[in-house]
Amino acid sequence: MTVVPTRRLGASPAIRAALQCSTIEGEALLWRGKFPYCRGCPSELLSEVCLGEPMAMPHPHPTVLIVDDDDDARDGLAECIRAEGYQVETACDGRDALTKMRAVRPCIVLLDLLMPGMPGYGFRTAQLADEELREIPVVLCSAVHDLPDAAESMGVAAYATKPIAPGRLIALIREHCLK
To answer: Minimal CA–CA distance to 173: which of 127, 76, 108?
Structure first.
């Protein structure tokens, strides 16, 4: 028996929307006790879920945010990720990424390290300081020679050296996006 949010849910429209966004292909997901697209949803939210038919969903997969100043790299990653059915948002620097994260609530961020404006280091510092964004996993994607050291110092979920093989990229997204 599958537990899914339904239209019979006697909750506010905001809670129903949060539940709707937190399902994938009709399956209810638990995201460390909170739903990823719901700011400040109470833990009692889980007790309001009932059995029934899944609500219609606008997108069957969560969103991946790609942060890179290189248009070609960003577009190439986006094409690969979309081919797997994920939604993709892009940002050209850390400041743009923080704005998009607040609006979209991605399941994972693929972050370049060296960018004009707010580079990867500045983005990660700001993300960790933001209570609403700090739990979103980040995968550092860069061609710098000391990438493992940079990834460790930034406390990211994983890292991948550019160019990234498509299979490795999708494996990283699957591994960290649905935790």
So the answer is: 108
